[in-house]
Amino acid sequence: MEYCLIYLSTARELFDQDKISALLTHSHNKNRTLGITGILLYCNGSIIQVLEGEKQRVESLYQVISTDQRHHNLIRLYTGLIDQRTFPDWLMGYSTLTAKEFGHLHDMMPFIKNPILPGSDTDSVVISLLESFYKNNYRN
């Protein structure tokens, strides 16, 4: 069984493209070494990240992430065992989304419509969490 951890956080300051690129380069290298996959979404200073892999490695990485001074107010949204990874080929998928784009997540990311997560019904846990993230970060 694999393990999934999803968290939400707030950037201490808005990320520019250079900060995002540096973060992604570091994440790809670290995740490759640890065998972790996932996705990071950024919208208006808010971050939501899905981490998948062996439980101890995911939890260890989360401990490192939680001490990163670039963000704060970390909230675990979901932790649990999964039958298979939702993002098996993504060392760290990434997208900067406008609030409007975030609202159309189902259309933009059809590959996460039906992840295999415990307790998921018609709507997956991941999609539900991502939609909540959008609703809480929508700004006209």
UniProtKB/TrEMBL annotation:
Transmembrane stretches, start-end: none
InterPro entries: Acylphosphatase-like_dom_sf (IPR036046), BLUF_domain (IPR007024)
PROSITE patterns, alphabetized: BLUF
Family annotation (SMART domains): BLUF
Molecular function in Gene Ontology: blue light photoreceptor activity; FAD binding
Domain BLUF, residue spans: 2-93
UniProt name for this protein: BLUF domain-containing protein
